[in-house]
Design brief:
- By secondary structure, this protein is of the alpha/beta class.
- The chain contains 14 helices and 15 strands.
Length: about 425
């Protein structure tokens, strides 16, 4: 019998980190409760954005929020906001993440950020601490993008970055339009658009997330400081050639788009290093048409995912990828159409915030290791408008988006304490009470 998420989390936890109102058992039981919603045979979860399973997970957390004394609401985009009043009425300190998942995903990506933020509030409740500014714990909708192929939708709705035109062209794998899906969810297109908030309502945003990599594990550290979130750019390339019979068409004079695409994919892997140490470029999706074993292809469609923390370097890499595609097409005697499908600016964490985090880590006796986030997060969207911070938690084996995704409870609770201390220091500054 497979060991339960709760039992596995608590098996190696000795409880010494249960202090200042923070409870490892409570966090473990809540992670396990969410793991049971949409549970798969492999021990992972299926909770697509705007699904019944995602909504059940949100409703469970909303119950916990109310029990912790938060004023809870769900906006038209399905975002959940639990608010704790502070001593002063100024922009809020917000923290959270998401509870939707990729197909057969893991139990920590998203839920850990939501439940860690809630655990901080629980600790304040138990110790009688009243924050100097309002606090919000937020669950964002459809962060992963598994429903519509368009992620971070809830945070973009909250910041007003999604319009009716962009939403009206979305449909899921079942052919359901976004309007049909959001209506079945209990909202509407109009209500979704009305979820946009006054940017002055939030003064700071923080997010705990698993690392989704091996750097912290290799360094023997429980947590690390995110120095910035890489900005993704997706470049679609469509190579056009001439279809023909594989046996009757001479090699000389062929116009084979797969030859051009193959050269291109090979060359793309060597380009990022020319621009920065943190740049990456990946071709993970490629479609050959007509895709017959004895047919020279007529066209090949692919997408290049290009990311870096440095916008200038990222944009330079995009231009070089374009040039490479055009050259590979010309050398193979085919044509290529290029379209920049999306481009999101990188979001660095300010020096001031990183220094504050480093102090908190140091006070906890943890070396303040800085890491870049290659994946997008809701913090990337909110970070365009307000200062933000991210804390990564060590991932065992760097596994993510997989039922084997795991972070030890000791490391998770360490991150909760780090967030709690950082929030208390940052809120004093937000309220104008410098240490």
């Amino acid at each position: 019998m497979r060991e339960s998420v709760r039992d596995r989390l608590l098996a190696g936890y000795d409880g010494t980190a249960d202090r200042d109102g923070v409870s490892g058992k409570r966090l473990a039981e809540r992670l396990a409760a969410l793991a049971s919603i949409g549970e798969t045979e492999d021990g992972g979860v299926n909770r697509p954005g705007f699904s019944a399973e995602e909504k059940r997970a949100k409703e469970q957390v909303m119950t916990w929020m109310r029990e912790a004394g938060l004023d809870v609401r769900m906006d038209g985009a399905g975002n959940v906001i639990g608010k704790l009043e502070g001593k002063t009425d100024v922009p809020a300190f917000a923290a959270g993440s998401h509870v939707d998942s990729v197909p057969n995903g893991g139990n920590f990506d998203g839920p850990l950020g939501v439940l860690s933020a809630l655990e901080v509030v629980e600790a304040w409740k138990e110790t009688g601490y009243v924050p100097p500014v309002p606090v919000e714990v937020i669950i964002f909708s459809e962060e992963e993008g598994s429903r519509f192929g368009a992620g971070i939708m809830g945070s973009q709705a909250m910041t007003g970055d999604l319009g009716r035109d962009a939403l009206s062209v979305l449909s899921d794998s079942g052919g359901n339009s976004f309007e049909e899906v959001i209506s079945a969810y209990g909202s509407s297109m109009d209500a979704f658009l009305e979820a946009a908030r006054d940017p002055e309502e939030i003064g700071f945003y923080a997010e705990i997330h698993i690392e989704q990599g091996k750097l912290l594990e290799q360094a023997g550290l429980p947590a690390g400081i995110v120095k910035g979130i890489a900005g993704p750019a997706w470049l679609n390339a469509l190579f056009h050639g001439t279809a023909g019979h594989a046996g009757n068409t001479p090699m000389i004079g062929r116009r084979d788009p797969l030859v051009a695409a193959g050269r291109f994919v090979h060359e793309v892997s060597s380009l990022p290093a020319r621009f920065s140490d943190t740049a990456v470029a990946t071709v993970g999706k490629l479609n050959v048409s007509p895709n017959g074993a004895n047919v020279i292809p007529e066209q090949v469609a692919l997408t290049v995912d290009i990311r870096d923390l440095d916008k200038e370097a990222r944009d330079g890499l995009v231009r070089k990828v374009r040039e490479t595609a055009e050259r590979c097409a010309a050398e193979a005697g085919v044509e290529v159409e290029l379209n920049l499908a999306s481009s999101i600016d990188p979001v660095p964490v300010t020096d001031e915030v990183r220094e504050e985090l480093a102090q908190v880590f140091g006070q906890a006796g943890i070396r303040p290791m800085e890491l870049m986030s290659g994946a997008g997060h809701d913090a990337m969207i909110l970070g365009r408008n307000v200062p933000m911070a991210m804390i990564f938690v060590k991932s065992i084996g760097g596994i993510s988006h997989n039922p084997a995704e795991w972070s030890d409870l000791d490391d998770c609770i360490t991150a909760v304490h780090l967030l709690k201390r950082f929030a208390e220091k940052r809120m004093e500054k937000m309220a104008g009470h410098e240490d």
